Structure formats: structure tokens, C-alpha cells
Amino acid sequence: MSFFDKDDFYSSKPTRHVRRRGSGQEQQFARSKFSKGSERSFKSSVRRLLGSQGRLVIASAVGGALIMLLLVVLILNLTGSGAGKTVAAVAGPSSGSGDDRVVKVTAAVKPAIVSVITSKPDEKGSGDQGLGMGSGVIFQKNGGKVLVVTNNHVVENGTSYEVMLHTGEKKKATLIGKDRITDLAVLEMDDAGVTAVAEFGDSSKLKMGETVITLGNPLGLGVAPSVTKGIISEPRRTIPVSLSGDNEVDWEMEMIQTDAAINQGNSGGALVNMDGKVIGINTMKIANLNVDNVGFAIPITDAIPIIESLIKDKIVKRPLIGVTMQNLQSFKGTEILKLPEQVKQGIIVLEASGPAKEAGMMSQDVITALDGKPMSSTLDLRKYLYLEKKVGDTINVTFYRGGKEKTAKLTLAVNEAK
């Protein structure tokens, strides 16, 4: 029996095959819905944690059996609030034997690791229902408040949030901002009982084989965070994902791959180097009968500007072209589009709004290029807009309508989607 409603995970069962860059092999990555009528990042279907095999699990903390809940409640009742101490950064030792360093780093970082509990009102409106439990990292203290970074999929669809310190003390938290594309979110709470904040490192300098540890709260096992040890398997691994929930690959995430165990509940926790600095935010793993210890974390160097945007603007401001779109190659019945024989790839406009509509674009237009650069898929379009353009830039859109090539000039607006 599951405590929370659903479990988050990537599925590696047959849905859609996506060829991984440079590998010559195929791996399935997809996303599913978390609750009725709402799209969830990085999922292909909803299943229970136990009794399901052959899946790529997002290490969300949605799980835990009812007996685990009772244990947690018992522990919370027996554990007092943390004593108020001066907040300090938690950089660990840079010397010593391997095991000794792990012990010292763990002791230093542990106070900055928290559990994040997400809830929303139940259907009857008589109380809250638990949506999930994940992990988080305290990274900033200012003006009597502290900030916690976690995963978007840990807090998504929730309306109320609690943070549990390593001492067992539970505190109400407010969602500052979240970003579905990078799977990051920031929470705020008061600083009473907080004894340490984590220090961010530099993930751009990671090397294959470097020793790391993960800290988080897998499966809601208890109050104190758990630690696992491993190495950097690959400092930067490209993972294709579906943002729209239709199994179409429309974004790619650059991840740190590690063999340090990441389990459900570790989502939003810390990947830490032997200097005691956070170099990644744990987010997912591959769970399959034939796969062992393949986990992924968001590089902290990539995460920092996203975190800063969430603190400042509550969202990440990205350029908006104003189209609801689908890959041409996934569309059936393309004959109604009257495309020239040579046009095999592109992006179908399902609906035009904002800048695209103002520029005269319409439903059933087929985009083939932006600023003269070929666009064969929604992934190409998003990568060009998000990585090479900014809000306020002017772009030229090449598209086909009724078999004839046309162009439109438009100014990119702000995409305020969270």
C-alpha cells in the first residue's frame, strides 16, 4: 500500500525509442502524467514503486509504505527541535584517507540536507493529501529566512510544503519559484533551527572517476538523511526528455552521471565532492533488471543561474515565439498540408498566439527554419530559442502554407510558463 498517491519515474519499457547521442544504442526516455488532467515532467506512466521492474526512475520521494509513515511519525514524536546555532557553510576536508574524508564530509554537509513534503487539498476539501516527499539542500540564509533548492517534480502540483530538518523539526515553507525544463525549484522558510548552509562547488571541473557522495532521504526511511558513495561515471551526459508528455523528445538535459546510489526520495538532494561542496542536484536514475547504479544529477554550475532567476523573478524568463507545435514527422495525414516533396521534416503549428499570431502565422503552417537555420523538430526550435536567443530579439521564421514557402518577422516575447 502506498502512502502517497503516485510514484514518479522514467520508464524504460516500450514507449518511444530515442537514439542517444553518439552511442549507437537506443534508450527509452519519456514522461507521464502525475495527476488527472496535469502533465508531469519526465514520466511515461504512473506505477507503484514496489512490484514494478524495468523502469527508469526519477528519484522522487513519492513512495513509502504505510508502515513507513507510522515509523516516521513515531520518530518525529520522539525527536525534539534543533537547537539554534550560528549558521555556517559546510565545506568539508580536502585531505585525509578516503573513508575518513567521506565520514567528515558527510558530517559537515548533513545539517544542510532536508526532506521536502508536498501536499494539496483533498477532493472533499476537508484536509490535505500527500503528493510526495523528496529532498532539498539549504543553500542561502538572509534576513531571518533560508532558501532550499529541490526538484520541480518534487513540488509540482502541490499547494503547501513542509521542510523537515535533519533534527526532525518540521517547518512550513513557501514556494519561491519552479522551472519544469531544468527540473529545479526554490523554497523559502524561516531560519530557526538551521545550523548550516551548503556551499556550491564548480561542476565544470569534474573528472571521470572522481569520488562523490549523495545525501538525501530515500523512501522516507527516517529523519536523518542517508548517504551513498560512488564516483563520477561521466561529468556530462546528454539525456533526451519529453516536456509535452507526448513521448516526443523536445528537450535535452545535460547531466552528471554517477554510480552512487540514488533512490526514490533522493530527488532534490545533494551530490557532493570530497571538498564538501555541492556539485549537483540529484534528479533521476535508471532502474532496470539489467542496469545497476546509473544515476543522474543536475550540474550545479548549470543550476546556479536558474536558481538565481527563480529567486529574482519567480520564473526563468525564456523567449517565446507563440506557437503550439508538433513534429511534422509524427503527424499523420500530411497530404492536407500540400507540402513540396522535399519537405520531410519541420514543425507543424497547431495554434498561433502572441508574436507568431501578430506576425500572421496560422494553424497548419509548417516551420522549416529560423533565421535561415534549418529546424527539423521541436527540439531544434527550443534549443535555438533558449540557448541562442533572448527576449526582445527579432527572428525570421521560414514556413510553408498551402505548399508555398513564406517568411515572417517577429519579436520574441517572454515565456512566463513555470
| Total domain count | 2
Globally, the shape reads: elongated
Question: What fraction of the residues are assigned to beta strands by DSSP?
Answer: 35-45%
Q: Supply the helix-strand structural class.
A: mainly beta
Report the radius of gyration as a whole number of Å: 22 Å
Question: What does this molecule look like?
Answer:
By secondary structure, this protein is mainly beta. The chain has 2 domains: 1-316, Thrombin, subunit H (Beta Barrel), CATH 2.40.10; 318-415, PDZ domain (Pdz3 Domain, Roll). Helix content is 14%, strand content 39%. The protein has 6 helices and 28 strands. The protein has helices spanning 66-78, 98-109, 152-155, 300-313, 354-358, 378-388, and strands at 10-11, 17-19, 26-28, 33-35, 38-39, 55-56, 88-89, 113-121, 128-142, 145-150, 160-164, 170-179, 184-190, 196-197, 211-216, 226-241, 251-258, 270-273, 278-288, 291-299, 318-320, 323-327, 347-352, 366-370, 373-374, 394-401, 404-411, 413-415. It has a 6-stranded antiparallel barrel with strand order 8-9-10-13-12-11. A 6-stranded antiparallel beta barrel has the order 15-16-17-20-19-18. Strands 22, 23, 24, 25, 26 and 27 form a 6-stranded antiparallel sheet that branches. A hairpin with a 2-residue loop joins strand 9 and strand 10 (145-150). The model is unreliable at 1-87 (pLDDT under 50).
